[in-house]
Specification:
The complex is a heterodimer.
Chain A lengths: L1 H25 L10 H9 L1 H4 L15 H5 L3 H10 L13 H14 L3
Helix pairs in contact in A: 2-6, 5-6
Chain B lengths: L12 H25 L15 H26 L13 H27 L6 H25 L7 H26 L9
Helix pairs in contact in B: 1-4, 2-3, 2-5, 4-5
């Protein structure tokens, strides 16, 4: 009986391996390209300080993977943009949760790495 | 009338070992190539009841190491390296398999997040070593599983392969969980 349970767990784990492999190739993020909503929000709210292409200005550089280095996890960057800190304004009051996610995704994948 | 034996050609032990090593190396390289070629999404795909994905990964990796430690103790009893309990129960081998499978299974969501969100990076020695340990871990695991299934192998194959898997898991733990628990630059909270 115990051996059958172990066999079942092994089989489930093998299925889990297959699922992981499938998801690695199938679960690509949505487009955060130049024409998307994230880009429009960026140009309207962020470009004046961070540059039109995220190259930096009054605010730090975001392009070239710089923002990903500062914020390895997207949710931390979203919280930062929403709450602000120092000279970085808080956008949590002016942008919706969806817009925050869209603009953050754009800075991470749409500005080039 | 002569009986014709259709015996399968014997595969030498060396050939079996080489094929196992090739399979393990192929898996390790495949994981590394995926991590290097895939554009990291830098997103936290899941966090369950933790405050973030990194917390989930750190605690899952810690759990995997604890389970692997238990599996090591069970293996030591199977090989009579320890004598507790004095009479090895009949289910010891199955328990060894179950604990090992659970330890491996719990690494899967961690590996998925690492590969999909971060990829193979070399931004620091710790990060580079972590990536290498991860690739070798899955390659060594394949060798270990094949070592269990393939018959006629020398007795030292399984302990060596299992030891390598465990060593890689320790390396992964040190370069991720230990860093997380001890570094002031690691994200917080702990859970």
């Amino acid at each position: 009986m115990f051996a059958k349970i172990v066999n079942a767990v092994e089989l489930l784990t093998a299925v889990g391996v297959v699922v992981v492999i499938v998801f690695l190739f199938a679960n690509e993020p949505g487009s955060a390209g130049a024409g998307g909503p994230g880009a429009q929000i960026f140009q309207a709210n962020c470009a004046s300080c961070h540059g039109a292409n995220g190259e930096g200005g009054i605010g730090p550089k975001l392009a070239g993977g710089a923002v990903v280095s500062d914020f390895p996890y997207e949710q931390n960057q979203i919280a930062f943009v929403a709450k602000g800190r120092g000279s970085m304004p808080a956008f949590g009051g002016s942008l919706s949760a969806t817009q925050l996610r869209q603009v953050v995704e754009y800075t991470r994948t749409g500005l080039g790495r | 009338m002569t009986a014709t034996a259709t015996a399968r050609p014997r595969v030498s032990t060396t050939t079996k070992l080489l094929l196992m090593l090739v399979a393990g190396a192929a898996v390790a390289v495949a994981v590394g190539v995926y991590g290097n070629e895939h554009t990291p999404t830098a997103q936290g795909p899941y966090r369950l009841f933790f405050s973030g994905t990194i917390q989930l990964k750190v605690w899952f990796a810690t759990t995997a190491l604890v389970l692997a430690g238990v599996q090591l103790l069970l293996a030591a009893r199977l090989y009579d390296r320890i004598k507790i309990p004095r009479q090895a129960p009949a289910w010891l081998g199955d328990a060894h398999r179950l604990v090992g499978t659970a330890a491996f299974a719990i690494t899967l969501p961690v590996a998925y997040s690492c590969l999909w969100a971060l990829g193979f990076q070399s931004t620091s020695t710790r990060v580079l070593l972590h990536g290498i340990f991860g690739c070798v871990f899955y390659g060594a695991f394949v060798v270990k599983v094949l070592g269990v299934r393939v018959r006629g192998l020398p007795g030292w194959v399984l302990p060596i392969a299992g030891g390598l898997v465990f060593a890689m898991l320790v390396g992964l733990f040190v370069t991720s969980s230990v860093w997380f628990f001890t570094s002031s630059s690691a994200p917080r909270p702990l859970f």
